[in-house]
């Protein structure tokens, strides 16, 4: 998708420079030099053919490469290395590590975010990772900007499913909800933590043994809490509530 966007931008700039050149050339070449009316050209078949066929060719080329890229992006395999169920809800995330594909699979470990704790999604590098998304309430959107990819999360039985293979380096990246979903939409964050496959296996094993996500992260030498974002302030403390209530009564 990144390469497609770059190529499309270059093509758009090339077309733009060509059109701007024609405009300025016409402005200079055919500027008014007197009161005599210039020759009026009608039914110029070569010109009409050019400006009809050229856009069609441009759209056809873009459609062709878009269809190829979209097909590759949506392609899923039969045996992914890791399966994660993404459960979105107002206004947080739950990540379930599954032992198979589909709704009949079992959850072997789980991480759920709260107002006080940002959920950390731990994933291995250099592995095929399958995401199966569902929502408990409204439409949300799973988005990690550094992955250059996002996918909407819908309520109901239908699930959005996609796979990624581009986690090639270890690190931590902020994840967000990219679909307006209510009051605290802008604060509905999580963290994606990419670790080595060996660390990932140890993390899941620790979770299976009953450790909290924070303890499991510490057991593999990782920071226990999110490092790319922080819990959101709901502003529901008593002082603010009283001020809001008093303002409402006064009005």
TrEMBL record:
GO aspect biological process, one term: ATP synthesis coupled electron transport
PROSITE patterns tied to this protein: COX2, COX2_CUA, COX2_TM
The keyword Calcium appears for this protein: no
Main subcellular location of this protein, as a coarse class: membrane
Highest taxon above the source species: Bacteria
Coiled coil: none
Residues covered by the Cytochrome oxidase subunit II copper A binding domain: 79-206
Region feature Disordered, mapped onto this chain: 226-251
Cell location: Membrane
Domain Cytochrome oxidase subunit II transmembrane region profile: from-to ranges: 1-77
Catalytic activity, reaction form: 4 Fe(II)-[cytochrome c] + O2 + 8 H(+)(in) = 4 Fe(III)-[cytochrome c] + 2 H2O + 4 H(+)(out)
Membrane topology: Multi-pass membrane protein
EC number in record: 7.1.1.9
A GO term from the CC aspect: membrane
GO MF: copper ion binding; cytochrome-c oxidase activity; oxidoreductase activity
InterPro entries reported in the protein's UniProt record: CcO_II (IPR045187), CcO_II-like_C (IPR002429), Copper_CuA (IPR001505), Cupredoxin (IPR008972), Cyt_c_oxidase_su2 (IPR014222), Cyt_c_oxidase_su2_TM_dom (IPR011759), Cyt_c_oxidase_su2_TM_sf (IPR036257)
Ranges annotated as spanning the membrane: 6-28, 49-68
Entry keyword Nucleus: no
Keyword annotations of the record: Copper, Electron transport, Membrane, Metal-binding, Respiratory chain, Translocase, Transmembrane, Transmembrane helix, Transport
Function of the molecule: Subunits I and II form the functional core of the enzyme complex. Electrons originating in cytochrome c are transferred via heme a and Cu(A) to the binuclear center formed by heme a3 and Cu(B).
Family stated for the protein in its record: Belongs to the cytochrome c oxidase subunit 2 family.
Entry-linked NCBIfam families: CoxB (TIGR02866)
Name of protein: cytochrome-c oxidase
Species assigned in the record: Micromonospora polyrhachis
């Amino acid at each position: 998708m990144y390469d497609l966007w770059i190529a499309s931008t270059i093509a758009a700039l090339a077309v733009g420079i060509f059109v701007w050149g024609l405009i300025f050339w016409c402005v200079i070449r055919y500027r008014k030099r007197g009161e005599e009316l210039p020759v009026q050209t009608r039914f110029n078949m070569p010109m009409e053919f050019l400006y009809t066929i050229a856009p069609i060719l441009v759209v056809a080329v873009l459609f062709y490469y878009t269809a190829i890229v979209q097909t590759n992006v949506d392609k899923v395999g039969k045996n992914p290395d890791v399966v994660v169920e993404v459960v979105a809800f107002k206004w947080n995330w739950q990540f379930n590590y599954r032992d198979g594909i589909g709704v009949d699979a079992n959850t072997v470990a789980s991480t759920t975010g709260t107002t006080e704790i940002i959920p950390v999604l731990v994933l291995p590098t250099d592995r095929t990772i399958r995401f199966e998304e569902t929502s408990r309430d409204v439409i949300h959107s799973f988005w990690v900007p550094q992955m250059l990819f996002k996918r909407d999360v819908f309520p109901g039985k239908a699930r959005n499913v996609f796979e990624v293979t581009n986690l090639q380096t270890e690190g931590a990246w902020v994840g967000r909800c990219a679909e307006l979903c209510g009051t605290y939409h802008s604060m509905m964050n999580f963290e994606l933590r990419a670790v080595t496959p060996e660390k990932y296996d140890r993390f899941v094993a620790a979770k299976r043994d009953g450790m909290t996500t924070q303890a499991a992260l510490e057991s593999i030498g990782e920071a226990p809490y999110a490092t790319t974002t922080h819990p959101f302030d709901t502003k529901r403390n008593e002082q603010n509530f009283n001020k809001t209530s008093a303002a409402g009564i006064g009005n």
